[in-house]
Design a protein that fits this description.
The chain contains 8 helices and 9 strands. It is of the alpha/beta class.
Length: about 220
């Protein structure tokens, strides 16, 4: 059977595509971490200090961020630079934020171990903040430490100075900050409907990713 020049060219093209796909590097496998595996990894270790990011890690706070955008800068991100928004957010809006069940399980595990828990957030500090008290009530934290307001994504110094052994967070900056500070980074997955877009790629930095942690 004779093939036309077009058919031959098509076959060659498909072969080349196949070769390119076969030679492309595969994405690294995600290092999934289950709650039982986490608990087992901590067995026999003395009480330690551990840290948590807040937004999209322990609280699904998108309702407050969405409301803030609608009030202060509809259709733009300018509200994130408005001190009035942060004052309202830290001053009580988080009563509308939804606690994540994965965070409840993590915090309960660490409290059972006698670990000291810290919260470090990229939010700026505001006067009369109510976030510390809200987190203490929401997660029944017995020895609550004041929330650390970092005013940005870089948290290395705060993790290092508090001698944290594990740091949980949803953002790439949480993972890199933990590593630079010598802490074990664990990714808590960000919900797909979070206002914080684009979503990070879970496991892209080779970190452990907590299973079932989008909610």
């Amino acid at each position: 059977m004779r093939l036309s020049a077009f058919a031959i060219a098509t076959c060659v093209a498909f072969q080349l595509v196949g070769c390119a796909l076969s030679s492309a590097p595969s994405a690294p496998a995600i290092r999934w971490l289950s709650m039982p595996a986490l608990q087992a990894s901590l067995a026999g270790t003395p009480p330690m200090a551990v840290g948590f990011d807040i937004d999209d890690t322990v609280l699904f706070s998108s309702p407050c961020f969405y409301a803030g955008q609608q009030k202060y800068s509809p259709g733009s991100e300018a509200y994130l630079h408005n001190p009035a928004f942060w004052q309202a957010l830290n001053g009580g809006c988080d009563r509308y934020s939804i606690p994540k069940q994965s965070a409840r399980a993590l915090i309960a595990l660490h409290q059972q171990r006698g670990d000291r828990i810290y919260f470090i957030t990229g939010r700026p500090h505001t006067d009369h903040e109510q976030l510390t008290a809200l987190l203490a009530r929401t997660f029944a934290i017995s020895n609550m430490q004041p929330v650390v307001f970092n005013s940005g994504p870089e948290k290395t110094r705060f993790i290092h100075d508090r001698h944290l052994k594990i740091y949980y967070g949803d953002a790439d900056s949480d993972i890199t900050s933990a590593r630079e500070a010598g802490a074990r980074p664990v990714r808590v997955m960000r919900a797909a409907n979070s206002t914080y877009q684009p979503l990070p790629v879970n496991g892209a930095l080779g970190e452990e990713v907590l299973e079932h942690s989008t909610y």
